[in-house]
Amino acid sequence: MTGGLVLEGVTAGYGAVHVLHDIDLAVADGSITAVVGANGAGKTTLLRTITGQLRPSAGSIRLTGGAGGKGGTDGTDLTRVPVEDMVRHGVALVPEGRGVITELTVEENLRLGGLWRKDRRAAAEVLTQMYELFEPLARRRKAAGHQLSGGERQMLALGRALMAAPALLLLDEPSLGLAPKVTASILGMLRRLRDDTGLTVLLIEQNVRSALAVADHGVVLNLGRVVASRPAAELAEDTDLRHTYLGF
Ligand SMILES: Nc1ncnc2c1ncn2[C@@H]1O[C@H](COP(=O)(O)OP(=O)(O)OP(=O)(O)O)[C@@H](O)[C@H]1O
C-alpha cells in the first residue's frame, strides 16, 4: 500500500468563484501530511478537488506510488478520475461527519467498505485485521452505527475506508466533536498504520496542535493559497507563523 500525491498549479472553486489558487503540494509516499488553516482557508475544498467531487479549472493532481504500489498508482493522473472510481485508484476518503451509515451494524459498515473488492477471501482477511486494529469495534460488531460513541464512529469510518486497502487515505477533520484523549488515540492509529503498512495520509484538521504532533509534514493554507510547507515539527515551533495564520 503506497501512494504519494502531487498537486501542481491547482486552481479550483465553485462556479466562477475561485477558492484555491495555484496550489502546489506534495505528499510523500508513506508519510502523514497535515493541512491546517483558519476557517474558510479552503481545506475542505482541497479534499473535494483531490477526490474528484470538484474539477480543478487549472493544474494537475497525480498519484506517485513507489514500486509495487497497488492499483496502478504509479503516476496515475487523478485530475479527470470521477469520484466513484477513486477507490479503484487506491484513494479513500473519510469525510467530515464520518460517513457511517447509522442504520447498519458495525460489521455491515465495514463490509460495505470492502464491497468493491473482487477477492472475497482478501476482504474477509482485512475485516479480521480491522477488528485487531480497532478493538472497540470488535466488541461492538453487531451494534448499529447510531449506538456508537463519537470515537467509535470515527474508528468505524476509518476502518471502512481501510477495508478498500487504499494507498492514500484522506481525512477531513477526524477530531471533530471528539474528546482530546479520543482524538489522540485516533491520530495515534494513523501513525501506527503509516509505520506498519506504509499508508500515505493527508489529514485536514482544525485541531492544529494535534495534527502537527502526528504529522511528518505540515502545509498551511490561507485564503486558498499555500503560505507554508515544512516539516510538521518546524511549523509547530514557528510562533510568528502560528500567530499570523493559525491564531494561537
Ligand atoms: N458549496 C460552496 N459554494 C460556494 N462557496 C463555497 C462552497 N463551499 C465552500 N465555499 C467557500 O469556499 C471557501 C473555503 O471553504 P472551505 O470549506 O473549503 O474552507 P475550510 O478551510 O475547509 O473551512 P472550514 O474549516 O470552515 O470548513 C469559503 O469562503 C467558503 O465560503
UniProtKB/TrEMBL annotation:
SMART domains: AAA. GO terms for molecular function: ATP binding. Keywords: Amino-acid transport, ATP-binding, Nucleotide-binding, Transport. The keyword Transport applies. Residues 5-248 form the ABC transporter domain. Belongs to the ABC transporter superfamily. This is ABC transporter ATP-binding protein. The lineage of its organism: Bacteria, Bacillati, Actinomycetota, Actinomycetes, Micrococcales.
